[in-house]
Amino acid sequence: MLWLLRTMCFIHVLGKIFCLFGPNKNPESKMNVSEIIKHWEYPSEEYETVTDDGYILPINRIPHGKDNANNSAPKMVVLCVPGLFSTAGVWVSNPPDNSLAFILADAGYDVWLGNNRGSTWAKKHVTLNPDSKEFWAFSYDEMITYDLTAIINFILEKTGQKQIYYIGHSQGTLIALGAFSTNQELAEKIKFSILLAPVRTVKYVKGSGRLPAYFTPKAFKLLFGEKEFFPTKAFSRLSPSVCDINLVDAGCATVLSSLTGYSPEQLNTSRVDVYITHSLAESSTQILIHYGQATRSGVFQAYDWGSPSLNMQHYNQTTPPIYHVEDMKVPTAMFTGLKDFLSNPEDVANLVPKISNLTYHKIISDFSHLDFITGLNAREEVSEEILTILRKYDGDI
């Protein structure tokens, strides 16, 4: 973690030195999700839904593509949920010909993009102030229990549909696996799920993503506080003015790759500034502690409060409950990469037999963690195959 902080400071210094040599390369690095969608001349809608524990989550929508606006037939809904540190903007971080959200909209789908609580545009609560520790007292348990239910139910009510397609990336897969295995009523609202770079256990995670496991919860809180995970926040804020500079792009890409894995042949270096902005957003310190626990234990289970008595207070048992993925019955496809640091092939191998209704699994040898969304070959290797899969399930709307 100290290496990561030092690298960030080095990049910041370089940015100050070279910032006079050119303007921003990509205006999207300074845009929110709706602005990016409009920038590419697609229809954009934005809504808010409130979770049962009071978090106000923005949801972005692309109701149709550029050439199917006059099609009055009901459109099947696709919900895309990003990973840890990502905003909904990651789904539109490339031009339309290689951004999954735009590709889906142009193919005739009603596309919805979820945002993680605590990320850049999701810092609102009915009663809590985001400056308080209480606001940030959440891990991925709350996303599993509250967030997906609120988002999915809102979409179904708004569209009048009975089922939707679900596409998750990274943490977006983890919370789906947790939610759809523990909440069968919610799972029945999913017609098909597609997991990109799936995460269940992170026992074999590599790179800087493994660093939280080296800290005790107490040490991690002492170093990073008990609110936002600030290195991510700081880097995200620096990125628009730093990572749009050619001489610094390589440094920015290296920091991102230290988390996700190295696949330079898939990286569009001309858009690193956009990737950083929308793939290194804020999150809570508690989530990082939870991932550290998961790395050490190798088990997909709820947050460990640190003692049998505290766990008993939260769960009515002395140990954190385990999420039994094998209880998920939703038809599922997976796309995984052999160069992925976070969805490590060893963890994936342990996940595969747990998914009882796995209908398709594609392994891409040269893909790392973000390549399923932003990679140069993402359209050919992932997006086009997703369209083929969804079309097989279209029909009963």
Descriptive report:
The chain contains 15 helices and nine strands. It is an alpha/beta fold. The chain has helices at residues 2-18, 33-39, 100-106, 140-159, 171-182, 184-187, 217-224, 230-242, 246-260, 272-279, 285-297, 308-315, 345-351, 371-374, 378-393, and strands at 45-50, 55-62, 77-81, 110-114, 124-125, 164-169, 190-196, 332-337, 358-364. Residues 1-23 and 231-245 have low confidence and may be disordered. Helix 4 (140-159) packs across helix 5 (171-182) and helix 8 (230-242) packs antiparallel against helix 10 (272-279). Helix content is 40%, strand content 13%. 50% of the residues are buried. It is globular and about 60 Å long. Strands 1, 2, 3, 4, 5, 6, 7, 8 and 9 form a nine-stranded mixed sheet that branches.
| Share of helix, binned | 40-55%
Order of helices and strands: HHEEEHEEHEHHEHHHHHHEHEHH
| Shape, principal axes of CA atoms | globular
Helices, by number, come to 15
Q: Tell me the fraction of residues in β-strands, as a range.
A: 5-15%
Cα end-to-end separation: 48 Å
Class by alpha and beta content: alpha/beta
Tally of strands: 9
Sketch the major β-sheet: 9 strands, mixed
Uncertain stretches of 5 or more adjacent residues: 1-23, 231-245
Rounded to an integer in angstroms, the radius of gyration calculated over CA atoms is: 20 Å
Mean pLDDT: 88
